């Protein structure tokens, strides 16, 4: 593994290759197997992974429960990043259910119960646009930090104006964003901002919802319940899917000496503005492929130039849920 990196000014140091647990929650990524999921978490620890990212809504809390089971008896080996904000979200009024800091604190108690732990390393606000309850989160999170229930807190969004406002108050340490070869938009404004403010960055979507694994083509189908079904059923999304596949084909041709997934993750790890990348994995073979990319090291200048010719710096597009 690469050397550990610090998560902003939180004092938390982690291996830059983490593990995202959204898919393990089930419900939106096709079938899962709990035993296989826990075995994958076990293997991740053995391979040096120490940061695990989850959320209260991943499988309606099931992802957190699985992580809690995996941590039993060895909590100190894990750096846990979880999120809060979407449960009982008021879609009509467009704000979270956490109207006061006290309500936020009570909500986090539920995260702690599912995780079967007495503290969370990193609590992240999961509402990806500015809403009226942002201040409730910031005040509640600061109280939780002061009381030792969390070690640090941050935000999960790629909305730049919102990012600027969120970090203008409080002492948030991290920002989770979508970033990949297909979506380099963060290079324009977000990364300069996080460098200036010394904010740690957690990268989701590094494999672009599976597009950058290279396993899909124009004829690929998705299982029932997989949110990517809309890539085929929705005409606009299908058109974009075909454009993305064309870019993927160019990348495959330009880098025949490594897997596309490894190239995609090495690209992220090579960015000095990145603290952690959290590719998802439901199985041990997927996990091992991800970890192998870190073992290959950072990309060379020549490799970066080849990527730049296919997707220009700052280019690409935001990919849901950016």
Give an overview in words.
This protein has one domain: Alpha-Beta Barrel (TIM Barrel). The mean pLDDT is 94. The protein has helices at residues 34-46, 62-71, 101-115, 134-146, 160-166, 190-197, 230-233, 235-254, 260-269, 284-295, 301-310, and strands spanning 5-6, 13-14, 19-20, 51-53, 79-84, 120-125, 150-156, 174-178, 200-204, 276-277. The chain has 322 residues and is α/β, with parallel strands linked by helices.
Brief overview:
By secondary structure, the chain is α/β, with parallel strands linked by helices.
Unreliable spans = none
Number of domains: 1
Q: What amount of the residues lies in strands? A: 5-15%
Which architecture does the CATH hierarchy give at level 2? Alpha-Beta Barrel
Oligomer: single chain
Under CATH, the topology is which? TIM Barrel
Query: What strand order characterises the main sheet?
Result: 3-4-5-6-7-8-9-10
Distance between the termini: 27 Å
Please name the fourth-level CATH homologous superfamily.
NADP-dependent oxidoreductase domain
Helix content: 25-40%
What class would the helix/strand composition place it in?
A: alpha/beta
Number of helices: 11
The CATH class designation is: Alpha Beta
The SSE order reads: EEEHEHEHEHEHEHEHHHEHH
Write down how many β-strands occur, each being a DSSP E stretch of 2 or more residues. 10
Query: Which outline best applies?
Result: globular
């Amino acid at each position: 593994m690469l050397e550990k990196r610090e998560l902003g000014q939180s004092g938390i140091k982690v291996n830059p290759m983490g593990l995202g647990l959204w898919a393990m929650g089930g419900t939106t990524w096709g079938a899962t197997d709990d035993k296989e999921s826990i075995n994958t978490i076990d293997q991740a620890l053995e391979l040096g992974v120490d940061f695990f990212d989850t959320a209260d809504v991943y499988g309606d809390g099931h992802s957190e429960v699985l992580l809690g089971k995996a941590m039993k008896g060895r909590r100190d080996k894990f750096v846990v990043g979880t999120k809060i904000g979407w449960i009982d979200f008021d879609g009509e009024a467009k704000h979270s259910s956490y109207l006061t800091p006290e309500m936020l604190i009570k909500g986090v108690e539920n995260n702690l119960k599912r995780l079967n732990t007495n503290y969370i390393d990193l609590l992240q606000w999961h509402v990806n646009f500015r809403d009226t309850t942002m201040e409730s989160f910031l005040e509640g999170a600061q109280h939780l930090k002061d009381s030792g229930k969390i070690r640090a807190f941050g935000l999960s969004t790629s909305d730049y104006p919102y990012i600027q406002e969120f970090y203008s108050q409080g002492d948030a340490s991290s920002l989770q964003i979508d970033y990949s070869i297909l979506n380099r938009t963060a290079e324009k404004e977000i990364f300069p901002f996080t460098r200036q403010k010394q904010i740690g960055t957690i990268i989701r979507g590094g494999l672009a919802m599976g597009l950058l694994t290279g396993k899909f083509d124009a004829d690929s189908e998705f299982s029932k319940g997989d949110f990517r079904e809309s890539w085929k059923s929705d005409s606009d999304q299908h058109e974009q899917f075909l454009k993305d596949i064309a870019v993927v084909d160019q990348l495959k041709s330009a880098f025949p000496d490594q897997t596309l997934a490894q190239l995609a993750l090495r690209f992220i790890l090579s960015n000095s503005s990145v603290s952690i990348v959290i590719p998802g994995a439901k199985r041990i073979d997927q996990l091992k492929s991800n970890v192998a990319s870190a073992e290959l090291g950072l990309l060379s200048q020549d490799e970066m130039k080849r990527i730049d010719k296919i997707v220009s710096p700052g280019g690409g597009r935001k990919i849901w849920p950016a």
